[in-house]
Design a protein that fits this description.
By secondary structure, the protein is of the alpha+beta class. The chain is globular. A hairpin with a 4-residue loop joins strand 14 (356-358) and strand 15 (363-365). It folds into three domains: 38-70 and 217-385, BirA Bifunctional Protein, domain 2; 86-193, Herpes Virus-1; 395-513, Rossmann fold, CATH 3.40.50. 41% of the residues lie in helices and 24% in strands. A seven-stranded mixed beta sheet has the order 3-9-10-16-13-12-11. Strands 20-19-21-22-23 form a five-stranded mixed beta sheet, with helices on both faces. Strands 5-4-6 form a three-stranded antiparallel beta sheet. The longest helix has 27 residues, at 101-127. The two termini are 39 Å apart. It is built from 18 helices and 23 strands.
Length: 514
């Protein structure tokens, strides 16, 4: 099965099992806007909780914030979004489809990188354990030729973006012979800029109030509250402010399911540091954030760092943590050294001092900022994509299973009475009531036990507890593990103790801190 076919199956599975629905589906839907179903909202909330607790609860010097979506319009002038929050877009005249020009080039680069990996795989297969990948890349002529092309493309892309030279960007697309995925032609328009912010009006009558913007990011709410938090919390540098919340971007090229949406949720932390220490903290947070992603168990080999070819106007260092989605490596989280740009700009536009007074050095300065910003919807998609598995069993049968991290699964424990009589449902309900305030539970008595196991596997339930006639006599239940399908008999009195290390978010956090 190709990655494209598997991704299509995943999208269908997400709808069938109540994870993600197309927004306004009964009215033929709204493009690039999605609703989270009864199971999706729990998974999303649990992922958010894990990020929040790992970021705020386990750090003494990081606190939370919930700023408003509506902000004074000058905020976005100061941040640069009004003048510079644009995407370079290009249209194919035959398909009438619009694309981000820089993304088309990046995808072309990714194809060249795949060719290098293919050469490496051949070398590894030929030389076995004695294979030296670094030496192979340095000496193989095919790899050298492809890498030279990649380097040239990256440099031309960087220069065209930095100089806003859209003629050069269009020429690069033509030189690379990039074709439209729909029409297969290279009949491109000129590259143009498009501002991504949604605007609205505040006031009883349109035009009477000022123009406002739906926030395109959550970071600015942190910056304008820097002094409020610092003074009320008596925070000392270095310290961080974390926030989760909705952001809005008028994406013209919105595709790949929930990967790129017009309404999405961010989880950001801005870490305020002394000038001169920012690059050290930048390296520290790169390591910390990658370790957090690895703790989810989605596959350590599926992550990589990607340094930005073009730095944003506010940054002196920037990279992405990319994840290997079914459609390739794409940005999951951004880590930026934002310098003192944001606070300095808000000082200039507001006329208020946004400085920190260091009592030890008796110096006042504008702090530098390290940003970590992750898309919750993209994290949700990465989690779902990593978990979705179609497997053939030893007996020849097949099953679809979601191997979700147990501590974020929407249903953690399923209570399954073997039959719907003889006191088994009553005992199952009794056990469920003893568990439901600690774990996410579901009672299921419909269909055969085998069908119920398959249903819970597809939902991602890590543990099933089966109550049978013997349970009434020996006060034990059968515990079935989702991933291995292994079963064990445990006393009812020991269920809590058995489930705690398997399912609790606290156990996951302890492993992360340890």
């Amino acid at each position: 099965m190709t990655p494209e076919e598997q991704f299509k199956n995943l999208i269908g599975h997400a709808k069938e099992y109540g994870f993600v629905f197309q927004s306004s589906e009964i009215y033929d839907g709204l493009s690039a806007v999605y609703d989270y179903g009864q199971n999706g909202v729990i998974l999303k909330n649990r992922l958010r909780e894990y990020w929040w607790r790992a970021m705020v609860q386990v750090h003494d010097n990081i606190v939370g914030l919930d700023s408003a979506i509506f902000m004074h319009p000058t905020v976005w002038k100061a941040s640069g979004h009004v003048d510079a929050f644009n995407d370079p877009l290009i249209d194919n005249k035959d398909s009438k489809k619009r694309y981000r020009a820089d993304v088309l080039v990046e995808e072309a680069i990714a194809k060249q990188e795949a060719k290098i990996q293919k050469e490496v795989d051949k070398g590894r297969a030929k030389w076995g354990e004695s294979f030296d990948e670094a030496q192979f890349k340095a000496t193989n002529p095919n790899v050298a030729r492809i890498q030279a092309k990649i380097n040239d493309t990256e440099e031309r892309l960087r220069l065209s973006l930095e100089n806003a030279d859209f003629k050069a960007l269009q020429q690069l697309i033509l030189d690379l012979e990039i074709v439209c995925p729909i029409s297969g032609t290279r009949n491109w328009t000129d590259v143009r800029q498009f501002n991504l912010m949604f605007s609205t009006e505040m006031g009883a009558v349109s035009g009477e109030g000022g123009t406002l913007y739906l926030r395109p990011e959550t970071a600015q709410g942190i910056f304008v509250n820097f002094l409020n938090v610092q003074k009320s919390g008596r925070m000392k540098i270095p310290f961080g402010i974390a926030q989760t919340g909705k952001a809005f971007r008028n994406e013209i090229v919105a595709r790949q399911f929930i990967f790129r949406m017009r309404e999405f949720e961010q989880m950001e932390m801005q870490y305020f540091v002394a000038p001169g220490s920012e690059l050290e903290w930048y390296a520290t947070w790169k390591a910390k954030r990658l370790a957090w992603h690895h703790s989810l168990g989605l596959g350590a080999d599926k992550y990589r760092f990607h340094d930005h070819l073009k730095l944003a106007h506010y940054a002196n260092a920037a990279c992405d943590i990319e994840y290997q989605f079914p459609f390739g490596f794409k940005e999951l989280e951004g880590i930026h050294s934002r310098t003192d740009f944001d606070l300095t700009r808000h000082e200039q536009f507001s006329g208020r001092k946004l400085r920190y007074f260091d009592t030890e050095s008796e110096a006042s300065y504008v702090p530098y900022v390290i940003e970590t910003s992750i898309g919750l919807d993209r994290l949700f998609l990465a989690t779902l994509a990593a978990a979705y598995t179609e497997e053939k069993l030893e007996d020849g049968s097949e099953r679809v299973v979601l191997r979700l991290p147990a501590f974020v699964a929407p249903v953690q424990v399923a209570l399954l009475p073997l039959i719907k009589k003889d006191g088994l449902p009553e005992l199952a309900r009794q056990i469920q009531n003893s568990l439901r305030f600690r774990f996410l539970t579901q009672y299921d008595e419909k269909d055969s036990i085998g069908k119920r196991y398959r249903r819970q596997d597809a939902l991602g339930t890590p543990v099933c507890l089966t109550i049978d006639h013997q349970s009434l006599e020996d006060h034990c239940v059968t515990l079935r593990h989702r991933d291995s399908m292994q079963q064990e008999r445990i006393p009812i009195a020991q269920i809590h103790a058995a489930l705690e290390p398997l399912l609790s978010i606290e156990s996951a956090l302890a492993g992360l801190v340890g």
